[in-house]
Specification:
Helix 1 packs antiparallel against helix 2. The chain is elongated. The protein has 2 helices and no strands. Helices cover about 70% and strands about 0% of the residues. The protein is mainly alpha-helical.
Length: about 70
């Protein structure tokens, strides 16, 4: 028997961008720590981390825009 709390979370605009951005950032940081001892080029890992953070910011901006439009 499963119980539900009654608070069903709906997806808001930007959730996919935020989630994907977090995953990309974490992967970039993991790769940075894995490749740091070998002296490999860190440009890819930095661009992954910054790109992931940029996706998170874009996702939150999309959420803010939708919230502001709904207040009108």
């Amino acid at each position: 028997m499963t119980q539900t709390t009654g608070s069903k979370k709906t997806k808001t605009p930007g959730d996919a961008l935020i989630g994907f951005g977090i995953i990309v950032t974490i992967l970039g940081l993991i790769l940075a720590f894995m490749t740091a001892p070998t002296g490999a080029s860190i440009a890819l890992t930095i661009s992954l981390s910054l790109g992931g953070l940029l996706l998170v910011v874009i996702g939150y901006l999309k959420r803010i825009v939708v919230a502001l439009e709904s207040r009108r």
